[in-house]
Design goal:
The protein has one domain: Peptide methionine sulfoxide reductase (Metal Binding Protein, Guanine Nucleotide Exchange Factor, Chain A, Beta Complex), CATH 2.170.150. The protein contains 2 helices and 9 strands. The protein is α+β, with helices and mostly antiparallel strands.
């Protein structure tokens, strides 16, 4: 799949090609309101890619309904995510960023499904682009 983005671009490029909300979340560490994102309750088969650079981040097989109000995954594609300690808002969290373009995605918590990784990747919908699985007939 082609993308209008290469991996690392200037902030002006991101500002010109992302919606204002996507720019605020991806490039300025914002957060979308819970239960408002298009992928919160989306469970089709395919993969989820970074909206800023098209890097594949998650497979739909690892998405689950955590009830948190944002898309939740229990596992990321190996090497696709950067993990950064985040002590903002009086909390200790781990921020997730796209390893290819350094865009903010959300956070990962250790309260996910115990029968899998035990992790909950809490990701802003606006940071994702869903790519449906190709079906052959």
């Amino acid at each position: 799949m082609s993308s209008k983005f290469t991996k690392q671009q200037s902030e002006d490029h991101y500002k010109a090609h992302l919606s204002p909300e996507a720019f605020k979340v991806l490039r300025q560490n914002g957060t979308e309101y819970p239960f408002t994102g298009v992928y919160d309750k989306h469970f089709e088969t395919g993969s989820y890619h970074c909206a800023a650079c098209n890097t594949q981040l998650f497979e739909s097989a690892h998405k689950y309904n955590s009830g948190c109000g944002w898309p939740a995954f229990d596992t990321a594609i190996s090497g696709a995510i950067l993990y950064i300690e985040d002590h903002s808002h009086g909390m200790r969290r781990v921020e997730t960023r796209c390893a290819a373009c350094n865009s903010h995605l959300g956070h990962v918590f250790e309260d996910g499904p115990v029968d899998t990784s035990g992790e909950r990747y809490c990701i802003n919908s606006v940071c994702l682009v869903f790519v449906p699985e190709k079906t052959t007939k």
